[in-house]
Amino acid sequence: MKHYIRDYLLLFFMAGIVVGLDQYSKAYVRSHLAVGEMWSPASWLEGYFRIVHWYNSGVAFGLFQGSGQIFTVLAIIVAIIIIYYFPRVSTEDWTLRIAMGLQLGGALGNLVDRIGFGQVTDFISIGTFPVFNLADASISVGVAVLILGIWIQDRKKKPENAGPAEIVAADDPPVDREKLQ
Q1: CA 60, CA 135: separation in Å to the nearest integer?
Q2: Domain count for the chain
Q3: Which H or E run contains 143?
Q4: Which residues are part of the catalytic machinery?
Q5: Which helix (H) or strand (E) holds 12?
Q6: β-strand partners of 55
Q7: Rounded mean pLDDT of the chain?
Q8: How far is C-alpha 2 from the geometric centre of its chain's CA atoms?
Protein backbone atom coordinates (compact mmCIF):
# COMPACT_ATOMS: atom_id res chain seq x y z
CA MET A 1 0.00 0.00 0.00
CA LYS A 2 2.87 2.40 0.80
CA HIS A 3 4.21 1.75 -2.70
CA TYR A 4 0.98 2.99 -4.32
CA ILE A 5 0.71 6.03 -2.08
CA ARG A 6 4.31 7.06 -2.79
CA ASP A 7 3.88 6.48 -6.52
CA TYR A 8 0.64 8.44 -6.73
CA LEU A 9 2.08 11.29 -4.67
CA LEU A 10 4.93 11.56 -7.17
CA LEU A 11 2.61 11.39 -10.17
CA PHE A 12 0.14 13.94 -8.81
CA PHE A 13 2.96 16.22 -7.66
CA MET A 14 4.46 16.32 -11.18
CA ALA A 15 1.06 16.70 -12.84
CA GLY A 16 -0.04 19.27 -10.26
CA ILE A 17 2.94 21.51 -10.96
CA VAL A 18 2.18 21.39 -14.68
CA VAL A 19 -1.56 22.07 -14.18
CA GLY A 20 -0.84 24.88 -11.71
CA LEU A 21 1.66 26.67 -13.97
CA ASP A 22 -0.54 26.11 -17.01
CA GLN A 23 -3.71 27.41 -15.40
CA TYR A 24 -1.97 30.37 -13.78
CA SER A 25 -0.38 31.43 -17.08
CA LYS A 26 -3.65 31.05 -18.99
CA ALA A 27 -5.59 33.05 -16.37
CA TYR A 28 -2.95 35.79 -16.50
CA VAL A 29 -3.17 36.00 -20.30
CA ARG A 30 -7.00 35.98 -20.25
CA SER A 31 -7.06 38.81 -17.71
CA HIS A 32 -4.39 40.99 -19.33
CA LEU A 33 -4.85 40.56 -23.10
CA ALA A 34 -7.94 40.69 -25.27
CA VAL A 35 -8.45 37.78 -27.67
CA GLY A 36 -6.10 38.33 -30.61
CA GLU A 37 -4.02 40.93 -28.74
CA MET A 38 -0.25 40.48 -28.79
CA TRP A 39 2.52 41.41 -26.37
CA SER A 40 6.27 41.08 -26.85
CA PRO A 41 8.99 41.97 -24.33
CA ALA A 42 10.92 43.82 -27.05
CA SER A 43 9.97 45.00 -30.53
CA TRP A 44 12.94 43.23 -32.13
CA LEU A 45 11.65 39.90 -30.68
CA GLU A 46 8.17 40.14 -32.23
CA GLY A 47 9.13 38.04 -35.24
CA TYR A 48 10.57 35.32 -33.02
CA PHE A 49 8.67 35.31 -29.72
CA ARG A 50 5.44 36.90 -28.57
CA ILE A 51 2.49 36.31 -26.29
CA VAL A 52 -0.80 36.17 -28.22
CA HIS A 53 -4.17 35.54 -26.58
CA TRP A 54 -5.83 32.90 -28.70
CA TYR A 55 -8.44 30.15 -28.31
CA ASN A 56 -8.24 26.65 -29.69
CA SER A 57 -11.21 24.30 -30.04
CA GLY A 58 -9.05 21.46 -31.35
CA VAL A 59 -5.86 19.93 -29.99
CA ALA A 60 -2.26 21.03 -29.61
CA PHE A 61 -0.94 23.51 -32.15
CA GLY A 62 -4.39 24.28 -33.58
CA LEU A 63 -5.01 20.88 -35.16
CA PHE A 64 -8.54 19.46 -35.60
CA GLN A 65 -10.48 22.65 -34.82
CA GLY A 66 -14.03 22.11 -33.60
CA SER A 67 -13.33 18.62 -32.24
CA GLY A 68 -13.08 19.68 -28.59
CA GLN A 69 -15.67 17.21 -27.27
CA ILE A 70 -13.82 14.25 -28.77
CA PHE A 71 -10.59 15.43 -27.20
CA THR A 72 -12.29 16.03 -23.86
CA VAL A 73 -13.24 12.35 -23.78
CA LEU A 74 -9.81 11.33 -25.07
CA ALA A 75 -8.05 13.40 -22.36
CA ILE A 76 -10.14 11.67 -19.69
CA ILE A 77 -9.29 8.24 -21.11
CA VAL A 78 -5.56 9.09 -21.32
CA ALA A 79 -5.59 10.41 -17.74
CA ILE A 80 -7.25 7.21 -16.46
CA ILE A 81 -4.76 5.02 -18.33
CA ILE A 82 -1.78 6.97 -16.96
CA ILE A 83 -3.15 6.87 -13.41
CA TYR A 84 -3.79 3.13 -13.72
CA TYR A 85 -0.39 2.19 -15.16
CA PHE A 86 1.90 4.60 -13.29
CA PRO A 87 2.42 2.44 -10.16
CA ARG A 88 3.19 -0.54 -12.40
CA VAL A 89 6.16 1.22 -13.99
CA SER A 90 9.48 0.33 -12.39
CA THR A 91 10.96 3.08 -10.23
CA GLU A 92 14.18 2.55 -12.18
CA ASP A 93 12.45 3.63 -15.40
CA TRP A 94 12.54 7.29 -14.38
CA THR A 95 12.18 8.60 -17.93
CA LEU A 96 8.84 6.84 -18.41
CA ARG A 97 7.65 8.05 -14.99
CA ILE A 98 8.59 11.67 -15.79
CA ALA A 99 7.01 11.39 -19.25
CA MET A 100 3.77 10.10 -17.75
CA GLY A 101 3.69 12.90 -15.15
CA LEU A 102 4.23 15.56 -17.82
CA GLN A 103 1.64 14.05 -20.14
CA LEU A 104 -0.94 13.72 -17.35
CA GLY A 105 -0.36 17.33 -16.30
CA GLY A 106 -0.70 18.56 -19.87
CA ALA A 107 -3.83 16.52 -20.53
CA LEU A 108 -5.45 17.74 -17.30
CA GLY A 109 -4.39 21.35 -17.90
CA ASN A 110 -6.15 21.47 -21.25
CA LEU A 111 -9.06 19.41 -19.88
CA VAL A 112 -9.70 22.10 -17.25
CA ASP A 113 -9.99 24.67 -20.06
CA ARG A 114 -12.26 22.48 -22.20
CA ILE A 115 -14.64 21.83 -19.29
CA GLY A 116 -14.48 25.38 -17.90
CA PHE A 117 -14.46 27.43 -21.11
CA GLY A 118 -15.38 25.03 -23.93
CA GLN A 119 -12.02 25.70 -25.59
CA VAL A 120 -8.35 25.92 -24.71
CA THR A 121 -6.45 29.17 -24.17
CA ASP A 122 -3.23 29.32 -26.20
CA PHE A 123 -0.72 32.13 -25.93
CA ILE A 124 2.90 31.18 -26.73
CA SER A 125 3.84 32.17 -30.26
CA ILE A 126 7.31 31.37 -31.57
CA GLY A 127 8.18 32.31 -35.16
CA THR A 128 5.65 30.82 -37.57
CA PHE A 129 4.95 27.83 -35.32
CA PRO A 130 1.28 27.47 -34.27
CA VAL A 131 0.31 29.16 -30.99
CA PHE A 132 0.40 26.80 -27.98
CA ASN A 133 0.35 26.79 -24.18
CA LEU A 134 2.25 25.22 -21.29
CA ALA A 135 0.03 22.12 -21.25
CA ASP A 136 0.77 21.51 -24.94
CA ALA A 137 4.47 22.02 -24.27
CA SER A 138 4.31 19.61 -21.33
CA ILE A 139 2.72 16.91 -23.48
CA SER A 140 5.34 17.44 -26.20
CA VAL A 141 8.23 17.39 -23.72
CA GLY A 142 6.69 14.26 -22.16
CA VAL A 143 6.71 12.55 -25.58
CA ALA A 144 10.35 13.64 -26.12
CA VAL A 145 11.33 12.27 -22.69
CA LEU A 146 9.50 9.03 -23.51
CA ILE A 147 11.44 8.68 -26.77
CA LEU A 148 14.69 9.49 -24.96
CA GLY A 149 13.87 6.85 -22.34
CA ILE A 150 13.22 4.23 -25.00
CA TRP A 151 16.53 5.11 -26.64
CA ILE A 152 18.37 4.88 -23.28
CA GLN A 153 16.77 1.50 -22.50
CA ASP A 154 17.69 0.24 -25.96
CA ARG A 155 21.30 1.32 -25.47
CA LYS A 156 21.47 -0.46 -22.10
CA LYS A 157 20.27 -3.73 -23.64
CA LYS A 158 23.04 -3.82 -26.27
CA PRO A 159 26.38 -5.24 -25.10
CA GLU A 160 29.04 -2.53 -25.00
CA ASN A 161 31.84 -4.30 -26.87
CA ALA A 162 29.80 -6.36 -29.25
CA GLY A 163 31.26 -6.49 -32.72
CA PRO A 164 29.30 -7.03 -35.89
CA ALA A 165 27.32 -10.23 -35.77
CA GLU A 166 28.47 -13.04 -38.01
CA ILE A 167 25.77 -14.50 -40.13
CA VAL A 168 26.17 -18.22 -40.65
CA ALA A 169 23.63 -20.38 -42.41
CA ALA A 170 22.59 -23.55 -40.63
CA ASP A 171 23.75 -25.72 -43.59
CA ASP A 172 27.25 -24.17 -43.82
CA PRO A 173 30.10 -26.29 -42.52
CA PRO A 174 32.18 -24.79 -39.69
CA VAL A 175 34.98 -22.53 -40.92
CA ASP A 176 38.56 -23.09 -39.72
CA ARG A 177 39.81 -19.50 -39.41
CA GLU A 178 43.50 -20.55 -39.30
CA LYS A 179 43.30 -22.07 -42.79
CA LEU A 180 41.81 -18.85 -44.12
CA GLN A 181 44.82 -16.77 -43.12
Answers
A1: 9
A2: 1
A3: helix 134-157
A4: 122, 136
A5: helix 2-32
A6: 121
A7: 86
A8: 28
